[in-house]
C-alpha cells in the first residue's frame, strides 16, 4: 500500500477547535490506495513545515496532504498553488506576525500543487458536497506550509498539496458558512480516493 502523510492544525485565532484536525483524526486508517499517517501541526510560521518535513523524512510517504481551516469559506477547497509570501493579519500561536516577507528568499514566486487537484475537487462535488478549486491558500501559516513542502519536494516523486475546509457549525457566527464534521470527513475521504 502507498503511504499518505496527512496533517491538520491546532486551533488558532481564538478558536477552541480546528476542523482540519477534528476531521483528520476521524479519517479511516486506509483510504483508496493509501495507508494514512496522521499528524497535528502547530499554527506557527516555519515550525509547522519543519515538523512535517521531519516526520516525512523518516516515513518517506508517497503523498502528503495537509488540511487547514478557512473560516468564511463554504466549501472544501483543494489549493492549486502556494506563494512565496508571509503576510499575517493576526499573530500565529507563538506571536509571530510577519508582513511582506518571503518564505524562502531564494525560492520561486510560487509552486503548484502536485496532487490531482481537479480530480479531487470533482470527487467532492460528485459526493454532493460543496467543493471547488481554490487559487489562493492565503498568506498565513497554511500557505507557508504548502509552499515550503512543495518547494522541498519539487522534482521528486513525492506528491504534495493542501485542502482548506470550512468552519464547523459551532464556530460560525452571524451567518458565516459552515459544514458538519461528518461532511468534512466524507469530503476528505472522497478527495483521497480520487488521488
Ligand atoms: N488555517 C490557517 C492556519 C491554520 C489553519 O488551520 C490558514 O489558513 O493559514
> Roughly what fraction of the amino acids lie in strands?
15-25%
Poorly predicted spans: none
Label the overall shape: globular
Task: Kindly report the spatial arrangement of strands forming the biggest sheet.
Answer: 2-3-1-4-8-5
Total beta-strand segments: 8
Q: Using the CA coordinates, give the radius of gyration.
A: 15 Å
State the distance separating the first and last CA atoms.
Answer: 13 Å
What can you tell me about this protein's structure?
The chain contains five helices and eight strands. The chain is α/β, with parallel strands linked by helices and 195 residues long. The site of pyroglutamic acid has 12 residues, from strand 4 and helix 4.
Notable characteristics:
single chain, 195 residues, alpha/beta, 6-stranded mixed beta sheet, two-stranded antiparallel ribbon, 5 helices, 8 strands, 21% strand, globular, binds pyroglutamic acid
